[in-house]
Amino acid sequence: MSLEGLVATRFTGKPLRQPKYTMRDVPRTTKDLSHSTLYHITDREHLNDSMAEFVLLCNEVMNRKALKHKSKSSKPLSLEYMADRLDVDDPIFGFMIRTDSMPEDYPVDQRDYFKKGMCQGFITVTTFTNWQKSFRWDSTHDSAFAYDSPELAAKMESGGRVFDQDGSLASQLQNTVRCGDPFNEGVVWPKIAEISLLGALGCGKTLLSLVIERLEAMPANGDHNYDYVVLQATDNSIPFYESMGFKRVGCVNEEILAPDNQHDAKQAKDVIINSEPKSQIVSSPVFTIKTQKNGDTAADFAKKYNVNVWDIIFLNKFMYPELTPRAFLMKGTSLFIPDVSKLDGSANARTQWYLSADNETPREIAKQFNVTCKELLAANRGRIEDLKAHSRLIEG
Length: 396
Hints:
The protein is an alpha+beta fold and 396 residues long. Helices cover 29% and strands 16% of the residues. The strands form 3 sheets. Strands 1, 2, 3, 5, 6, 7 and 9 form a 7-stranded mixed β-sheet that branches. Strands 4-8 form a two-stranded antiparallel ribbon. Strands 10-11 form a two-stranded antiparallel sheet. The longest helix has 19 residues, at 51-69.
């Protein structure tokens, strides 16, 4: 039995570069950044050299919030988490904001400590990647929010949290193209960008808005064609992200289905323990075609099958790294094409009607008919307004 995972490599790398200033002396940015300078960072080494500043800045943000609200400080981003992200994220780019000149309202007793170049904020972005074969986006799965604390569960039930209630957003994410080896480079989702790190003193909204604008303006290519932005929010940052239009979405990872009996359970456990990880390509649904003549292009097949040409480029870049939308292909060339007929919620099975019992929920009905709750909600969304997985239905 072997255990494998991603670990930070900072202990074997060079020592962290400590800042020559104290974080308590760093001023908040003004709304127009009039006393600050914005930097666009594309060099991973530059971000690694700033790691100590990132950690200290996150700690300072939490300390100031605790003092302002007279409450206990929440846990900020850890050094280990930052080290993992800066080591593993590929590609990676971001922005940093540093002091440029002293603000007019800077405290008189701190003016001797002001320095140009103090870090006031940072943000990094990558392409969403996962390392689990069975990972999926699913807000209606029983396990999606099963481990919420009682306080969070109450907020979800009362509407105190913004989340993907009908599972439609998770379905959109799940239906995007993906491909990769979960035991090596990971399964890459080229249509989904991820905000991996963010810390700021007064400039969080500016940095996040800037990144979203940047992502929208980025030209599509074989590595990325962003339509969505995701992130992992710490407890203290949830209100901030919700104010920026983000909503909570569910994701699950199930290696095996629940066994029907104890014997099956033992067999399933044995399979997990005794099987060694192997290199294996995981992808969204595809089918294979062969070009019928010289001169066919990926753009031709994108039009024929009504799919995005960059999805075709991405799915085939491992075989044809130089493939472009208009590149001429030789007769007999094999291409992977996204199979939209097999996407979640796209099956055109015959409709079966069911009349509910009193107080029954869509989640309970979905279990009876061995369908996903997400499919059941999608099928009835146009008939029953505001239908949710936990809605209590009237008889009939």
